[in-house]
Amino acid sequence: MNDRLRALPAVHALLAKAEQAGLTHGAPRGAVLEAIRGTLSEARRAGGTPPADGWMAGVERRLARQTRLSLTRVVNATGVVLHTNLGRAPLAKVARDAMQGAFRYSTLEFDRGTGERGSRQDHTRRLLVDITGAEDALVVNNAASALLLVVNTLGEGGETVVSRGELVEIGGAFRIPEILRKSGSILAEVGTTNRTRLRDYALAVNPRTRLFLKVHRSNFVLEGFVSEASITELVQLGNERGIPAVHDAGSGLLVSLEQHGLRGEPRVQDSVAAGATVIFSGDKLLGGPQAGIIVGSRETVRPAAQNPLARALRPDKTVLAALEATLLLYRDPDDATREIPTLSMLTADVHELKRRARRLARRIPAARTEPGMSSVGGGSFPGAELASTLVVLEPASCDALLGALRAHDPPVIARTAEGKVLLDVRTIADDEFPIVADAVNAALRE
Length: 446
Description:
This protein is of the alpha/beta class.
C-alpha cells in the first residue's frame, strides 16, 4: 500500500466535516455517507489521489449526482408539439395549479354538500357529458386502459369485429390484437388492409359477436385505393343487430382545427352524435394529463364503471384535478385555444413565430433564422406539417452541441438536420428564451 492510500481520511472524519459544512442539513445522512464512501472509492482507484478541488467539494458533487431527480423539466425546442418522449401535452396553468391543490387532503371522494362519500368520477363526468353530448363518462389512467376496460366489459367471451386496416400498433409496441386478447374477447378480423366495407362487418356477425370496434389510424395514413366503413354506418348496423359500436378515436380532439390546416382527426362530439361509445386520450389534442376517457350511453359506460377492472385502472387525484381544470376551459373554445398550450402552439400565427424566432436568435450571436416545419406528434394528425421559423446553428459537431444542451439545467432538447442544430420556437415558451440562449451560448464557448 502506498503512502497516499494510507493517508486517505476515514469515513467518520469526512462525515464530521460534512456535518460542519452543512451537507447533512439538506440530504439524508445515509445519502451523505454513500457519497463519502463513493468519493473515497474513487480516490483509491486513482492510487490515493484526493479530488482536485478538495474532499468536501468531491463529496458534494457526488451527493448532487446521487440525489438528482431523473424525471425533470426540459425545454422542448424540437418543434414536435406532442412529443411522447417529453411527456406529450404540457398542462395549462390552471391545470398545474389544480394539481398543486390536490397534493394535500382533497374532496377526491367526498361530497361537501352531504358530508357523505362521493365518487372521484363526479369531478369530470358532468363536464365531459356537457362538452361531448354523451349521456355518461368515465375516466381511467390511459387510452389503452380505456379500450381494455370497454372491450372486457362488452366483449369478454365473445367476438370483437375489427377491420384489418385498423389493427394498429400504438406506442411502446403495444398492438390492438394483443389488447383485445388480454380483454378476454376474441378478435374477428374483417376486410383487407386497404379496403373494408360495411358488408364485411355484416357478414361477420354471428351469435358470438359482442361489439364492433373502429380504431382511428392516428399514427399513419392509408392513401390510394382505400375505403372504410364510417362510425355512423357501424352504429346503424349495430342498432339493427343489437351490437354496440365503439370508436377508439385516439387523440381526443374537441375543437375543430381545420381552419389551421389540420384535418383528418375525428372530433369526439361527432362520434358521440353518431351514437358510438368513444374512447380517447387526455394528454394529446385535448391538452390535459395522461388519462383514458370513455363517453357514450349509460347502457355502455355504467357497466364499464362497475367492472372490477375499473378500480385497478382508475386515475389518481392529481390527474383528475388537472383534467377537470382543463375541461373547464372548453366551456369557451376561444379560452381553450388560447390557454391550453397544445392548442395554442398548434394554432400559432406564422408571422408571430417568425418574430419570436428572430428575437431568440438575437440572444445567440452564432445563430440565424430560416423557414422550417414543425410537427404535431403524439400520434395525431399523421403526416401533417406546420410552417414555422427555425433558429439555426452550424456547430463543428452537432452531436457535441446536442449533448451539451441535454446536460444543461434544465435540459434543452433540440433536433438536427443536414449538419445543423435546429431550435423551433413553436414549442419554446417566451419565458424559456433566456434558458435556451444561456444553454446554447455556454455550450458554444466550451
